[in-house]
Write a structure and sequence with these properties.
Length: about 170
């Protein structure tokens, strides 16, 4: 059975407990459910289905069980493994301290952009289908990269560091 990863937008330890999210996904009929870290990463098995169908199932289950839903961005674990193995940031001359971030969109971005787009140490480097490669240098100004991404792509996105994507992509069976 295929393995999937749901990346939930807006989850923090203060607004969602991982055991509760796990229960929501089990209620939705997914199996081998596991949460990773405390930022709304859920890996699960499901019969092959369209990603939008899996997103809707997860969101409906969260709404029904918790009275609130987080936007779910679902990718197959295999897809994320290929993405990470492709070393997507290798072509960029990023400083060692740069944080490499992948933003996930619901659908492929339809506009052409002049890249890179840079602001206060944050850069949008590349758009590949429904993923956006970005990087930022930590600074006292806070999460400038997020406002840059939202200004460009809207708020209907979620972001993960490359390392978090790596952990989710290879999250084994429970």
């Amino acid at each position: 059975m295929p393995r999937y990863v749901a990346l939930l937008r807006g989850v923090t330890p203060l607004n969602a407990k991982m055991p509760a999210l796990k229960a929501c996904f089990e209620t939705a009929g997914f199996s081998n459910v596991r949460t990773l870290l405390s930022s709304g990463n859920v890996v699960f098995d499901s019969r092959a289905a369209g990603l939008a169908t899996l997103e809707r199932r997860a969101e409906r289950a969260m709404q029904a069980k918790r009275g609130h839903s987080f936007a779910a961005f679902v990718r197959s674990a295999e897809y994320l493994q290929r993405l990470v193995e492709s070393e997507p940031f290798a072509e960029y001359q990023l400083p060692a301290v740069a944080k490499k971030v992948i933003a996930f969109l619901r659908e492929p971005f339809g506009r052409k952009l002049e890249l890179p787009i840079e602001r206060d140490g944050a850069s949008i480097l590349k758009v590949t289908g429904s993923e956006v490669l970005s990087a930022y240098l930590p600074s006292p100004k806070g999460p400038v990269f997020m406002s840059l991404l939202e200004m460009t792509f809207g708020k209907g996105i979620t972001t993960r560091t490359l390392e978090t994507v790596r952990k989710c992509a290879w999250a084994g069976d429970v």
